[in-house]
DNA sequence: GCAAGGTC
């Protein structure tokens, strides 16, 4: 029996498909799919099935000095035990094996992991390696026709990376965590990829903080072509000291003078007309980074885009989404693929128009790699019911990107008109899309035009309105997630499969907040500490050196042991310098952690008010002076608090936003909220105690910011009705006839929400809730729910405790036996 | 309970 091992199940199935001529049998062993035909079995791993770690005696952070990890041995252990077990079983029954993992460095290492597992079982069996960049009939068949050998040097290069990443990451992570006392869930991490990525964000934040805005003015004049009266905007410019065109005027007097001159002029003379045609070439095929960038431009986050792409890939609609490649393989026949879309209701027309072109020559990007093809559609098209809206959006994006890569160039016409009025220069830049080219099939790039009419040199134009606008220079912008991923790619840190996950890791570690991500004080302190003592770990240099070392190992010019040993020695040196600064670093980190939780001064004792977490996991505001000062303020129970930059004018406390997915809302200053708490307008008589005790219903705000309609006799009367958490409540003049209460309006967003009478609203809400509850019982439909409600059965509890015969009497068309059946199911 | 890299 021959055993074929691939990197993932999906690849195993497709290879089985190709090599068996679609006639394989599949079975499951330990939860792992095995594909079998003729004398061959094919199994897919799940990426790495073994991982590196220190021996167990190093696992307690407090028992081991971080520096000891540098010379600790690094062991490999199975991380996917069921897959490893399956591989062993299959290997015992095999006479030969073929490693068919991905054609890249990490694939070679994963292949070696499989090789070693097979070798443990059988020392003699021939084990070959096949390499192919895309799983197509041609490539797979020709790879299997001429199998090669595993490249142990290339795999060793991967192992060097594993060891160095673990040793540096673990030793420095433990050092910072121990020095600041951050053990448990809130440890402080450092790594070759995460730390330089974090430094990018921190450096940008430093620039923003150090930014000093400067005032300037820009002047725009309306020019009119006298005949026909077409008008267009022209911007004032001058030549600066270096002789370059400049539009920004840095002195107010100069701006005023230029504006006055232009306002005084009645005509401007055209002094130069420059027309040029620009070719706008279609984009290259998608690699992972460019795909993420394009998805984020249509409002889909990096994380979500990758998760959707993964699903579309698994379902067979698009190719593998983790790739560096931007050149389509020779096997891809663009015409054939376009043909698959022909006749499709929304994509067919564009495919057909592309097929009409005489020559179809796809664009190529700069990066040609062997890992996988660029992301493109497979030709399988989901129907709209198969996928949700976002999935379709992403699928369409991938399809249209493919369309764009086989489409024609677009052509723009640029028209620059320079004129002079009262000795002042004005310019206008017009652009027009004269040939839509690929834009016709790829509508994701802006094609906005700027109209400037046809004029001739010497032509006189009327000067219309002149506008001088004062502006300020802006600080550099924060990185958005897709921009950060692009920058990381440019620096060579992380991989196609991990960059977006690294960003998530920074969120999870409390290093960044919000979106676009903003570094916390903790992040600033971690980067500062690293810069001072372990600059390598926050610089891209470490990766660059590692890449060079890995190339040397792969090409046989260096040994794995020498490279890791040299790296260990560098880390030793770092630890020699760190030793004396342990307390200082710990103090700084602790202070920064506190600063991230700080709201502002405590009004009772002047210490800091901090966002804290109770033993039960809920958040509240407490004083740093505790236990001397016991001042606390409540926070809403939903969501995780985010401290905003905005401060409350009255108390000098930062405002708080509650992050809770779609229910995220700004809570504001917790002290203001606490002061506002209390009773609002009275609505009417309390239905519970009004007639006897004279209680009245009022809108109340609780200390934690939530609101309700409650009785003024609380706590003697506990009658209450819920209100929405967000928005202003308006009490209208209209009253509900049934309950004699005013109708309420909620202002939250543009359209006010008509909540109506609070009792009716609550009843409806309950009916909906209970209705769905009863509908969950098999055999109970919407109509039955209505009938049961009429008989007073509104919840499962009502149903379970009711007498079946009584229900049968009350409800038409329902027998007592049927009710008993429901009760049994409920 | 550390990293980064695969994959789900």
TrEMBL record:
InterPro entries, sorted: Topo_IA, Topo_IA_2, Topo_IA_AS, Topo_IA_cen, Topo_IA_cen_sub1, Topo_IA_cen_sub2, Topo_IA_cen_sub3, Topo_IA_core_domain
Pfam families recorded: HHH_5, Topoisom_bac, Toprim, Zn_ribbon_Top1
Domain Topo IA-type catalytic: from-to ranges: 151-575
Residue ranges occupied by any Toprim domain in the UniProt entry: 1-136
Keywords, in A-Z order: DNA-binding, Isomerase, Magnesium, Metal-binding, Repeat, Topoisomerase, Zinc, Zinc-finger
EC number: 5.6.2.1
Coiled-coil boundaries: none
Keyword Metal-binding recorded: yes
Site entry: Interaction with DNA: 48, 161, 165, 322, 509
Cofactor: Mg(2+)
GO term, biological process aspect, one: DNA topological change
Region (Interaction with DNA), start-end ranges: 189-194
Region Disordered, annotated ranges: 358-387
Reaction equations catalysed: ATP-independent breakage of single-stranded DNA, followed by passage and rejoining
List of catalytic residues: 320
Family designation: Belongs to the type IA topoisomerase family.
UniProt function note: Releases the supercoiling and torsional tension of DNA, which is introduced during the DNA replication and transcription, by transiently cleaving and rejoining one strand of the DNA duplex. Introduces a single-strand break via transesterification at a target site in duplex DNA. The scissile phosphodiester is attacked by the catalytic tyrosine of the enzyme, resulting in the formation of a DNA-(5'-phosphotyrosyl)-enzyme intermediate and the expulsion of a 3'-OH DNA strand. The free DNA strand then undergoes passage around the unbroken strand, thus removing DNA supercoils.
The protein, known as: DNA topoisomerase 1
Gene (UniProt): topA
